């Protein structure tokens, strides 16, 4: 059974398929791959994030929540490389 058989897709600016009317879309480039035994684990670097018009559902503490709505500009990754040990805090500072 194909769980995406009835899902509507559209092409983004780069010609890649994305789910139509998604609450958010992350555009990533390959960061690293790791051997996972019988599979390969791929991690991505977020290069761009686009927000849709609907609020996303966030799963937190065993429940789904809708965050407060706010307008936010399109986010693009900073052009300079950030040290890997900065973690998520570095991404948070780049959003403002």
From TrEMBL:
Domain Flavin reductase like: 2-66
Domain of life: Bacteria
One family name in Pfam for this protein: Flavin_Reduct
InterPro entries associated with the record: Flavin_Rdtase-like_dom, Split_barrel_FMN-bd
Record region (Disordered): 70-96
GO MF annotations, alphabetized: FMN binding; oxidoreductase activity, acting on the CH-NH group of donors, NAD or NADP as acceptor
Parts forming coiled coils: none
Protein's name in the database: Flavin reductase like domain-containing protein
Native organism: Streptomyces violaceusniger
């Amino acid at each position: 059974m194909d769980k995406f058989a009835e899902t509507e897709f559209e092409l983004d600016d780069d010609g890649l398929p994305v789910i139509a009317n998604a609450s958010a879309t992350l555009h990533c480039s390959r960061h690293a791959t790791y051997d996972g035994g019988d599979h390969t684990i791929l991690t991505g670097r977020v290069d761009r994030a686009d927000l849709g018009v609907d609020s996303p559902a966030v799963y937190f503490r065993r429940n789904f929540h809708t965050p407060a709505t706010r307008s936010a500009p399109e986010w693009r990754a900073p052009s300079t490389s950030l040290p890997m040990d900065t973690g998520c805090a570095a991404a948070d500072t780049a959003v403002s």
